[in-house]
User: Fold this.
Amino acid sequence: MKAAVLNEARTPLSIDDLRIDEPGTGEALVRVVAAGVCHSDLHFIEGTYPARVPTVLGHEVAGVVEQVGAGVTNVQAGDRVIVGFVQPCGICEYCSSARPNLCQTPSTPRRRDQPTLWRDETAVTAMTNVGGFAEYSLTPASGLVKVPDGVGMDVAALVGCSVTTGYGAVVNTAKVTPGSTVAVIGTGGVRLNIIQSARLAGARQIIAVDLVEHKLAVAKQFGATDGVNPGEGDAVKTAKDLTGGGVDFAFEAIGLKQTARQAYDMARRGGTAVVVGMVPAMDQIELPGMIWLDEKTFKGSFYGSARFHVDMPHIMALYQQGKLDLDGLVTKRFPLDQINEAFDTLKSGEVARSVLEIGSE
Ligand code: CXF
Ligand code: ZN
Assistant:
C-alpha cells in the first residue's frame, strides 16, 4: 500500500510502498478514506515531540472496515468508522471511571512496540496505532466508532481529533456553564471547535485571541463575540477589561508555554485555564505562587477528556442537527501524494483544516 513516511525529523515525508500485517486478535484493518492534517503531526515532523522513525503519522482518520481479526464484535467489514487515536482497553481504572482518554493499557495482545508496517525488511511504526497517512490503517478495534449515514468521511475524520479535542475541552474538561465568559488563544482547527462548543454550551461572551485579523473574523463566524489581536496591545489586559476582571474559562490551543501562562492570567479569580495545545515536551510552565489566593484552576486537556463511544456519536448528532458547523472547518483538500504541500499550507496558517482524500468509500 501507499503511505507517507517520516524518515527523520525536519525532512519531507516520502511516499513509499509498505506492507501491512493482517489484523490479529482485537484488531481491524481499515481502508482509509480521509485524514486530517493536524498541528500535532507537525510537532513530530519538526521534532518538538520525539517520534520513532521511520513512522507513518496521521491520527485524524475515517475509513471503511475492510477486515476484522478474532474476537472483534463492535465493528464488521463494510462499516464506516472514525479511527480513534486512543484505543481504550475498557476495563482499567480509567476506562472504568469514564476517563478512557487516559487509558494506557493495550487493548489487544499485540505488544505496543511490535511493528505492523514494513518497508522491505525495515519495520515502520504507526503513530498512535493509527498511521493514517496511508491507504490502510491496522488498529485496535476498540478505538473505532461507527459513522452514521449522512455524515461525510471528511467530517468524520475531523471528529477523530480536532472536533472532539475542542468540544471535549469545553464540555468535559472545563465544563463551561451557561452565561459564562470564555477566552480562546489559538490559531488552528481546534480553536474553532472550542469557540463553537462554548457557544453551544451557552457562554455569553467568547473572546478569540489571534495575531491574524482574518482569523478573528472566521472566529466570529463560529461564535466569538470579541476578537483581540495581541499584536495591537496587551491581550491579557484587553481580555480583563472586556470582562471586568477576567474570564471564567480560558483555553490555550496553540501549544506554547507563554500562551499557557497568558490563559492563566486571563482567567478571573476562581476561574479555570485549560491547556489544550501541545506545549513542547521539555518546556516548563511557570505560574504565580499566589494561585491559592485566587483559587484558580489550571489544567490540561487530552483528547477532550472524551468518552469516545459516547461523545463522538453525540458530536455527529449535533452536526446533523446543525448545532456544530463541521463542514465549514474543511478548507482545503489534497491527495496523499501532496502531503508535503498540505503541511506547507498548515504552516502558512491560511486554513482551518486540510483533509487528505486518500481512498473512496
Ligand atoms: C495529539 C496528541 C499526541 C498524539 C497525537 C494526537 N492530539 C491531538 O492532535
Ligand atoms: Zn490532532
Observations:
- The radius of gyration is 20 Å.
- The CA atoms of residues 272 and 297 lie 5 Å apart.
